[in-house]
Every structure is written in C-alpha cells, then in structure tokens.
Amino acid sequence: MGRVQAMEEVARQGDREYWIEVVRRVSEPVLEAVSKGQLRARMPVEAAAGLAEARSRSTHLEAFGRLVSGLAPWLESTVSGDEVVLQTRYREWARAGIQHGTDPTSADYMNFGLTPQSLVDAAFLVLGIVRAPKELWEKLDKQTKGNLVKALQTTRQILPTQTNWLLFSAMVEAGLCFMGAWWDPMRVDYAIQKHKEWFLGDGTYGDGHNFHWDYYNSFVIQPMLLQVLDTVEDKSSTWSSLRPVVLERAQRYAAIQERMISPEATFPAIGRSLTYRFGAFQLLSDVSLRRQLREEISPEQVRCALTAVMRRMIERPGTFDAKGWLTIGFAGHQPDLGETYISTGSCYLCAAAWLPLGLPASDVFWSGAAKPWTAVKIWGGEDMKADHASSV
C-alpha cells in the first residue's frame, strides 16, 4: 500500500465518526446488558477447551471493567452533535453497571475477590473511574459508592505476583485513596519502587526482572504507572519526583509504538494477549490524550495510524459473533490465540485505544488534516531524522 493509498484509506470516513461507530458496535451489547443487570444472562463465555465454566466467574468483570477504562475519557468529556445522545446513554448505562456489578444481592454481582483475575479487572474498573471522576464516581448514589468501596477492598485477599500484577493492587489502593476510603500506601509504593528497579532502558520496563517481547508495557505497566502517580503523587514527594521520569519514558515507548505500525496498518503479532487487539496501543493513545507526544510525532499522524489499525482489525470477518459480542482473536476469530486466561470479557481491552476520544473534536488530534505516520513516510522514501534511544 503506497502513501497516497494509505491516506485515502483512512479518509474514507471522518475519523472521529468512525471511532464513535466502533465504540457503539463494541460497547452496545455489554453496556445495554449490564445496565439491566443481565450481563451474566446475555454474554457468551468463549474460552479455552474445558475452561468456560471457570472463566465465567471473572469474565463479566473483565468485559465491564476493561470497556469502561477505555470509554472513560469520552464519558467525562464535552461533546456535541450526534455524539451527545450516545454519550448520555452510555454514561447512564455505565453507572447502572457499577450499581449492579458491586451489589452482592444482584444477579450481575461481579465476584470481586473470588478469583485472582478479579484483582486485575477491579484495577481496570478503577482506572476507568479515576479517568471519569465526575461521571463514574461523583454521580453514583451513596449506597453504590459504599458497595464499590467494599468490593474493591475484597480484592486485598489476592496476592499479586512479582510482575505487572503489582500495579493492579496499586491501582486499587490509589482508587480507594481517591474515593476517600482507607488505603494502603505500602502497596502503592512497593509497586512503584519495583517498577523503578525493573526499568530496562529506552522507554521499556521488564515484566518483573525479565524483558518480555509483548505489549504489556502498553496493556498495563506504563498507563497504570502514570495513572497511579496522577492519583496519589501529592501524597509523597518521592512519588511526585518520579512522575516526570515516568512520563518521559512513556513518551519514548509511545514513539516506538507509533513506529511499529506498518504502512499497511499492521503491527507485529508477538507475545501474550494478542486477543486484546488494538488495545495494544493503550499507551500511545494515553500519551495522545495527555497531549504529551514527542515533538517529532504529530497528533494527526497518530490519529491516522490508529484509525487504519482499527479499520483493519474491527472489519475482519469473525471479529464479532452473530449477536455482536467480540470473539477471541487478533485478525478475526482465532480461538487458538487465546491463552488459558483469555475469555470473551478479556477481549474488551481493545477499548483502551479509544482514549483520545476524550479530546474535543476541535483538538488538532481530530481537526487536523490527515498526515502519514512514520512507517508510511519512511517506506515511501521520505528522508527523515534517524531514530535514537532515550537516555532516561
């Protein structure tokens, strides 16, 4: 695909309008069901052979928490035109989902603390709430706020491994701090200090002591590090002093991510959890939302690159089942790509790529003219400055 052809492809429809349509298509089954307390009744549970029953204990919290974590900036933002109706509905449905999901008497209670996986997705739910504090916390009724705090507290009985999982505990505690409940600063500090120790250079952290060729720096590590520090940095001068370094590392990793998107809008299918699809670009999306991209990367080129990736993946036959639920796969329905911890709900981490929808339509990310991303330019023969490792 040449440069002109690539740009024509992403310009077939207004990019923001296309993203909103993807949001609607992916989110509608989950949010409509959860708003009525019927997510367990409606959502299919696809999983590895023989594991559907076991995964059914956690997959509903996965679907809801992960979806909300990606939708949150858009839910919190001010929009106009046709988006208003959809946003209003999804705000109401998301709050209803929190109500049903944290009420132990509800048929849709999401089993906080029952499985190790519930710690993971409690953290993603918290990530969404602190990304949309007005819509997803302040507007909750008193009973639901209390139920939410209790649900999060039950995850403390789960011992995280010495990996990115430390950040799930840290995110939950940071959320409890935000909610005005008792929280454990030691769990937060331990996660921060271990990841400081696990930094490997050039914008990349190990998952524990080891380097992994996968997308966990984007799925979990760097977005959660940033958000934990955003939420509690004023509680410790040690934490606040780390934030500029953590941000600079995130900027470098986001730049690497942008360079990994080929002219054909593909990216390397390496490592674990490929069935999260374009959720692999959460960090690039997060840094874009923060308006903190490195100077050599324009917001417009990121928009075009992410739109092209999204089109390529979401429009692949088999991505959805007959009732509109996501299936396990990377480019279509590929159930063998799902690890034993993957189930239907897991796939909704793709929503993490939608974070720039929290920027207004007038922002240059959306309003600027289409621009080619780095790989399109380089493979098209354009002369560019050489790429270099970060020194931080």
What can you see in these coordinates?
This protein has 392 residues and is an all-alpha fold. The chain has a single domain, classed as Glycosyltransferase, CATH 1.50.10. It has helices spanning 3-10, 15-35, 39-42, 52-55, 59-76, 83-102, 116-131, 133-138, 142-154, 165-178, 185-197, 216-232, 237-259, 282-289, 299-314, 364-367, 374-379, and strands at 199-201, 204-205. A two-stranded antiparallel ribbon has the order 1-2. A hairpin with a 2-residue loop joins strand 1 and strand 2 (204-205). The model is unreliable at 1-12 (pLDDT under 50).
Write the layout of secondary structure elements.
Layout: H1 3-10, H2 15-35, H3 39-42, H4 52-55, H5 59-76, H6 83-102, H7 116-131, H8 133-138, H9 142-154, H10 165-178, H11 185-197, E1 199-201, E2 204-205, H12 216-232, H13 237-259, H14 282-289, H15 299-314, H16 364-367, H17 374-379
Antiparallel strand pairs: 1-2
Residue runs with pLDDT of under 50 for 5 or more positions: 1-12
The name of the CATH architecture is Alpha/alpha barrel
Beta content comes to under 5%
Biggest sheet record: 2 strands, antiparallel
Could you tell me the radius of gyration in angstroms? 20 Å
Q: Number of DSSP strands?
A: 2
By secondary-structure content and strand pairing, the structural class works out as mainly alpha
What is the typical, i.e. mean, pLDDT?
Answer: 95
Strand order of the largest sheet: 1-2
End-to-end span in angstroms? 36 Å
Elements, N to C (H/E): HHHHHHHHHHHEEHHHHHH
CATH class: Mainly Alpha
How many separate structural domains? 1
Number of helices, counting only DSSP H or I runs of 4 residues or more: 17
The geometry reads as globular
CATH topology group: Glycosyltransferase
Helix percentage? 40-55%
